[in-house]
């Protein structure tokens, strides 16, 4: 499901401005032609480390794809996945214990990207928690997220505090829909009639998302998804 986040990685030049440290606020060369991104999918029953790669395009890539979403986004490739159990919400009574779970996930990513170790500081790592964390009382949820952020700041990868978030149910549904349609290549050409619906019966929640067929929508039931000039009105 966490494929979604990388569809927002817009690339326009061969020498991309990848994440950088505050001391080096200039464009840097990533290990051509691949760039890597990590996402921790923190679900209710377990957490998964997803490692993605995508090819850095040239300035003219997709320049003729005027009717394709490929002109605006890059589709990544999953190159590694590792799961730990239980989910991070099980650490609610002892927030500091969540580090043990995150440590195993980060160590997996280090091993998977060992060949590009000199560039680790440019590769972003994200954490997205779902229903398990939404069910934790706010004070304990905040304490857990604080521990997650504190640990992820200490990793050798590129991390900012806003890279760790608890998704709303609407976001989870929309991003699941995006992942499904990206994987099936049913986003290209803006043909909304060809898109697939998404039904997720998760461990602690239930989501459904689809593009409605009616031309008039009730705004409170919509989740606008702007991936291109046209976009997708999800319901």
Question: Helix and strand layout, with pairings?
Answer:
Layout: E1 34-42, E2 47-55, E3 77-84, H1 98-112, E4 125-129, H2 131-134, H3 138-153, E5 164-166, H4 169-183, E6 198-201, E7 206-209, E8 223-225, E9 232-234
Parallel strand pairs: 1-4, 4-5
Antiparallel strand pairs: 1-2, 2-3, 6-7, 8-9
Question: Explain this structure to me?
Answer:
- With 235 residues, the protein is α/β, with parallel strands linked by helices.
- The protein has a single domain (34-55, 70-234), classed as ATPase, nucleotide binding domain (Nucleotidyltransferase, domain 5, 2-Layer Sandwich).
- It contains 4 helices and 9 strands, in the order E-E-E-H-E-H-H-E-H-E-E-E-E.
- The strands form 3 sheets. Strands 3-2-1-4-5 form a 5-stranded mixed β-sheet. The protein has a two-stranded antiparallel sheet with strand order 6-7.
- Mean pLDDT is 75; it is low at 1-28 and 58-64.
Highlighted features:
alpha/beta; Nucleotidyltransferase, domain 5; five-stranded mixed β-sheet; 4 helices; 9 strands; globular; disordered N terminus
Would you summarize the structure shown here?
GO terms for molecular function: ATP binding; nucleoside diphosphate phosphatase activity. This protein has helices at about 100-110, 130-135, 140-155, 170-185; strands at about 35-40, 45-55, 75-85, 125-130, 165, 200, 205-210, 225, 230-235. The protein contains four helices and nine strands.
* CATH first level: Alpha Beta
> Alpha-carbon distance between the termini?
18 Å
> Helix/strand-derived class?
alpha/beta
CATH architecture designation? 2-Layer Sandwich
Assess the beta-strand content as a share of residues.
Answer: 15-25%
Shape: globular
Integer-rounded radius of gyration: 18 Å
Strand count, sense and closure of the main sheet?
A: 5 strands, mixed
In the predicted model, the low-confidence regions spanning at least 5 consecutive residues are 1-28, 58-64
Mean pLDDT: 75
Number of strands: 9
Number of helices: 4
